[in-house]
Amino acid sequence: MYVALFPCNLTLSEILVEVEKRGSSFGELLAIPEQDDWVYVDGKSTSCVAFVFEMYKEAGLFGELANSIQVTEFTIKDAYSLKFFDNNSSRLPKWCNDADTVKLPYCQIKGKYRMELPGYNTMEPYPHMNEHCPSLPPKYSRPESC
Predict the structure, then answer these.
(1) Is 94 helix (H, G, I), strand (E, B) or coil?
(2) Residue-wise over 5-42: b if at least 16 C-beta within 10 A, else e?
(3) 129, 69 in Cβ contact below 8 A?
(4) Which helix (H) or strand (E) holds 55?
(5) Is residue 19 a contact partner of residue 25, using CB atoms and an 8 Å limit?
(6) Per-residue pLDDT tens for 23-60?
(7) CB under 8 Å to 8, separation ≥6 — which residues?
């Protein structure tokens, strides 16, 4: 499915004019949730984290919510925040936290510095998740209701 909200040959200035003609704003245009099945002029586009979530979706981790999830709307923080991981840290390999004074609920396989993953494994997925939530780097904070 090829998606074109505007003709492909418009400049940014021309897009801004066209958006205004249609009774909308550039901010509203940017807030339109990207759909997983959109194909652009140069083909399908995805980020690394969207690729991971597409695998989660195909593996069935979203269950009945799969049809109401657009993985292109997810952030890196979502990749570790969603409740997809085992909470029983006793199942981690013994070597996982042996050399560390801080026992993490996950296994960091490599790296000189400890990864901090605030909100790890705490968020239940919900229909249309992230489609209307503001989130800006680097913290990707979002309102409680989102």
Answers:
(1) helix
(2) eeeeeeeeeeeeeebeeeeeeeeeeeeeeeebeeeeee
(3) yes
(4) helix 48-58
(5) yes
(6) 988 888 877 778 888 877 777 777 889 999 999 999 99
(7) 41
Q: Assess contact for 73 and 33: CB atoms under 8 A.
A: yes
Give Cβ neighbours of residue 50 (< 8 Å, ≥ 6 apart).
36, 71, 72, 74
Give the SS3 label for residue 2: strand
Token output for 146:
């989102």
DSSP-assigned beta bridge partners for residue 43: 40
Q: What is the pLDDT of residue 3?
A: 46
Task: Quote the CA–CA distance of 118 and 122 in Å, as a whole number.
Answer: 9
68-78: pLDDT as tens digits: 999 988 888 88
Query: Helix (H, G, I), strand (E, B), or coil: what is residue 36?
Result: coil
Residue 77 CB coordination number (10 Å): 21
